[in-house]
Amino acid sequence: VQPADALVRIDGHTVGMASRFGPAKTVMQVPPGRYRFEASRAGYQTFSTDVALQPGEKFVVARKLTRASKR
């Protein structure tokens, strides 16, 4: 997820900044089940999606947050 300082949340719980995660960095492991993934940063539109993971399944997020429009 970009920008790298976006906050990552799983089911509303902050798990760290986006820069912490990635193929060459920390891989988050969670048990099978349904989750809401969210990434946000001030000045950007929040990205969120619901995910249903099966045993052994991987979920990869490659997303660049969109700047929020100025009002």
Account of the 3D structure:
- By secondary structure, the chain is an all-beta fold.
- The chain has a 4-stranded antiparallel sheet, with no helix packed on it.
- β1 (7-10) and β2 form a beta hairpin.
- The radius of gyration is 13 Å and the shape is globular.
- It has strands spanning 7-10, 13-17, 33-40, 47-53.
- It is built from no helices and 4 strands.
Write the topology of this structure.
Elements: E1 7-10, E2 13-17, E3 33-40, E4 47-53
Antiparallel strand pairs: 1-2, 1-3, 3-4
Beta-strand proportion = 25-35%
Shape label: globular
Largest sheet: 4 strands, antiparallel
pLDDT average, as an integer?
A: 90
Unreliable runs: none
Helix content: under 10%
The span between the termini is 25 Å
Q: What's the Cα radius of gyration? A: 13 Å
SS-derived structural category: mainly beta
Number of helices: 0
Number of strands: 4
> Order of strands side by side in the largest beta sheet?
2-1-3-4
Order of helices and strands: EEEE
